[in-house]
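Field guide to reading this record: the first block holds the primary sequence, the second block holds the structure written as discrete tokens, and the final block holds curator observations. Each block starts with its own label. This record concerns Sulfotransferase, catalogued under organism Xyrichtys novacula.

BLOCK 1 — SEQUENCE
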Amino acid sequence: MLGVQIICEESGAPCPDHLTADGSSPLPPSSLYAKQRRTSDERAGEERRTLFFCVDRQCAKVRSVVQHPPHHHHHHHPPLLRSARAREARGDPQRTPARDVLWTADDSSSSSRDRSSPRLKDTLLLIPLSLGGHPLFAMTRLLASAFLLVLQTYAAPPEVIQSEFDITIDPLDPDSALPANFSGVLPSSPPPGTSKRAPHSIIIGVRKGGTRALLEMLDIHPEVAAAATEVHFFDWDENYAKGFEWYRELMPYSYPHQITVEKTPGYFTSALAPERICAMNSSIKLLLILRDPAERVISDYTQVYFNRLENHKPVQAIENLLVRNGALNTRYKAIQRSLYDIHMRNWLRHFPLEQIHIVDGDALIRDPLPELQKVERFLNLPPRIVSSNFYFNQTKGFYCIRSDGRERCLHESKGRPHPAVNSTVLQQLRSYLQEHNRTFFRLVKRTFDWQ
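BLOCK 2 — STRUCTURE
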């Protein structure tokens, strides 16, 4: 029987980062758990919550809800879930959480509300899937979780549901949640004319370079269908062994005129990913977003620091990780990830430079539109992203997105303030990276304004 656990708000990414700071995995290879992602919209006074169910370290989006903050400290009624059938009735393909048009309990003006949709409170989304404790409580949680799994777009494999939740699903029943040829990922009913296709473009990295911002902003384009999760197909052996069809099933439904885009930041620093992606499609277009490598190191540290705090794990000052025995600790993984020239050489062994478009992550933060227009041209997309799609959030200090009649910002874990770093240590880091930066500039035949 599989171990079942709940993981909520582990990171800002929709799919949790299974690797800890030392590269190990805190999860067993065969585990079923849930993951919640929260995204706040200060202007609208809303908080978006997206639930993911994960099996065998692979996550799929289940449902998104929008919640208005309570006006008092008494009981607050959670929002309702919009049915997937409302989206399907409009003929929309499956979309990422950023593109869902959602409604809440007090959103009576919504014309797209499906009044037949399941009215599940979001407290149900947070029920711990624990097999321990009192048998009555355990059974209640399991039955509620099973009911939620059947209702949602994605679910665990049938053998997991039947063994863990003690329910029987008839694969021949047209209303059943699991088809007879179920292969591990539950598809929604596809809108007519859509299909799941291998990605036409992949955002390959770099970690903490702005990959999430790039995908969310690119997802504004009506001809882009973005995968909801970081798939880790080409860099994790256990996923790659599942085969190409497993990978394709994790892609969103798209129309023939759309292109599918997948994002996994770990690809750029993976030794195997370039060769594996080339074997799938040697003419694929790759997007690589980079920022000042020293700032990227600090951002990498900051994410791990806050993740460890949230998980009640001990933390270290950044100087203790950057310096060992009086010298720069070049074996520190955050530094290794910022050696762009080393990783780029590996990619250029398999792809010509013309197939790799480098997005300036620092410029994207300052002014998103010019960088996105370059991406549109690289992907041969008609120009659809305009300046009105962005607004500067004074509180957060970076640009947020306006599309589909909604305004949204990235998760609160994005844009966290960096810790102050000892100036001597920071100079050691920058000096070490300078030669690697110059080599990288020669490889890509362009320069960046990095210190």
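BLOCK 3 — OBSERVATIONS
The radius of gyration is 22 Å.
The chain is about 30% helix and 20% strand.
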